[in-house]
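User: Here's a chain of 344 residues. Predict its fold as C-alpha cells.
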Amino acid sequence: MKRETRNNWLAAAGAGVLVAAALWSNRRGSFELNGRVVLITGGSRGLGLLLARQAVAEGAKVAICARDPDELERARQELAANGAEVLALVRDLSDAADVRTLVAEVEEQLGSIEVLVNNAGIITGGPLDHMDISEYEDSLNIHFWAPLHAMQAVLPSMRRRGEGRIVNIASVGGKVAVPHLVPYSASKFALVGLSEGFRSELLQYGIKVTTVCPGLMRTGSPRHALVKGQHQKEYAWFVVADSLPVLSMDATMAARQIWNACRRGDAEVILGLPAKLLSAFHGLFPGTTADVLSWVNRTLPGPTGEVGDERRRGYESESEVSQSPLTTLTRKAARQNNEISPAT
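Assistant: Prediction complete.
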C-alpha cells in the first residue's frame, strides 16, 4: 500500500512538473506587437504565414516577402481582410541586393522595422551521393547569407532606437546533423552560430536576438521540399514523419511559442519534446548520437542511378504512402496554410 501511495505521489509530482514547465515556456513577455512594424521573410505560407496571422491579430503592421507572386497575394489578401496594414513584396532572398531593397522599402512604407523574423527556408532531402555543391550553396544563401544581410540592414535603425527584436528560425537540425538532410543541417548550424554571436554583441544596444530551433512541425510544407535519390521513398519517409503527432508539433502552437519567446527576448527556444530530447542527448553524448543516427541512416532509402541526381518537389514525388491516412495531418495543414494553390 505504501509503495502504491509513493508511486501515485511521484506520478502526481511528475505531472505537476510538466504542467509547470509548459506554463513557464508559454508565458508572455512585456514586448507587445501592437503597432510594431514586423518583417517576416518567407511569410506567404507555412510557419511564416502562421507567424504573420498572429502578429496581425495582435495589431502589428506586417510586411511579408516570398518569390511566388500569386502565393504572396493570396497571403496578403487573407492577412489584410480585417483591415490590417500588410505589405507584400516579391523578393529573391538569395540575392543580397534584393534583401537590402526589401528592408529599405518596408521602412519607407511602414516605418522602421522593430521586429525582424528570418523565416525563409529551403530543404533538400536525399543521400550524400546525390548532393552536389549547389545544394550546399542554395541552403547557405537562404539560411545564412539572407539572414545576415537582413540583420545588417535593420540594425542601424534598431541601434538608434536602443531597442529591437530579431528572431532567426533555425532548426534542431542546426543542433544535431540529421541524415539525408546534410546541406540543410550544415546551413542551419551556420545560422545558429550567427544568431548566437549577434545576440552576445547586440544585447548592449537593447537588441535581443532569439534563435528558434524547431523539430518537425505540421505546417504542410513538405510538399515544397526538394528531394533527390529515390524520390518517392525519400518524400514518403519525410512527410510521414512530419505528420505523426508524437514526432511533430502543431504549427499554430509553435508560432505562439515563438512569439512568446520573442516578447520575452529569450536567447533560444527549442520547440517540441523530441527536439528537446535529441538536442539534450547530443549535448551530453555527441559521439553516441552520431553513431545512433548512423543506424537510422541505414533504414533510409539508399542512393540510386543518375535519375536520383534530379531535384524534384515533394508534390512531384507522391506515392500511395505519401497520400495515405498516415499523412492526413500534414495534408490538412497544407490546405490551411496556403501551401496549395486553389487551382491545384
